[in-house]
From TrEMBL:
GO terms for biological process: DNA-templated transcription. This is LysR family transcriptional regulator. GO terms for molecular function: DNA-binding transcription factor activity; sequence-specific DNA binding. The keyword DNA damage does not apply. It holds the Pfam family HTH_1.
Amino acid sequence: MDKLKAMQIFVKVVDKKSLTAAAQSSHLSVSMVGNYLKYLEDDLGTALVVRTTRNLSITDFGTYYYGVCLKVLAMVEESGAVASGFSGNPEGTLRLAAPRSFGVVALLPRLGEFYAQHPRIRVDVAVGDDIVDMTTADYDAAIRLGPLSDSNLVARPLRPYSVVLCASPDYLAGHPPPSTPEDLLQHQCIATYFDHKTVWNRLQTTWEFIGDGDVIHRVNVPFKMQVNDAQGVCALVLKGTGIALIPEILAQPWLQNGQLVRLLPDHRLPDRAMHLVYRKMDHMPSTLKALIKFLLDEFS
């Protein structure tokens, strides 16, 4: 058997804490994963995991050997990356997670430029508003909105993610535009909510504005409706259904052609922090280095 492959499978078993999950992520059968583990244990002459019908635990030596495998696999990957780097053509596949609206509107349209620079690197992108767990999911990097929780990830700041308060000319034809944040209490407002537990749930139920002298106005708006997708909210506002906070990158084309109107221009809305995060590593593949450099050049 391929010992490096067996080490890769063992690392996945430890990370996933399950033979079944490791098999699914490796596109192998559970019995084949078991064969790889047995090969390593026979070769080493000691057990790496203890398996029962309900649980899987790592032996003390298995914990030590897991660290050895991480170092060996990183060195092997780095040697390949260095070799391809010498030829000027890093090669490999990366997985990147990004928030839905930012990913669709800003990130994906720019990836053509990345592919032009690095034709032998493939980037698989997952867009969605759930926060992926980088310690268990097979992602090389992620773009995250909002405050970051304490973790062992490297976080590189990107441009703040701005939102704007908008309505359509059709809506404003029947409703006088608000002149203060408190006027929103008399308007038809649409909220964006998210199914998962993030800071955005709190931010979306209370709208916050910053006026002259940095005075903060917090308005508990009685919403006409809530939608769990920013692009869906934008579509409703364009149809004259109400007023909403919309990501600026999403609203910008409609603001420029007059199909949306920016409201309360004398008040600022708090920016939302955005970061590029990835795991700490002693030997970073040249493919990931290239992607990180591109994203920082484009969005920092």
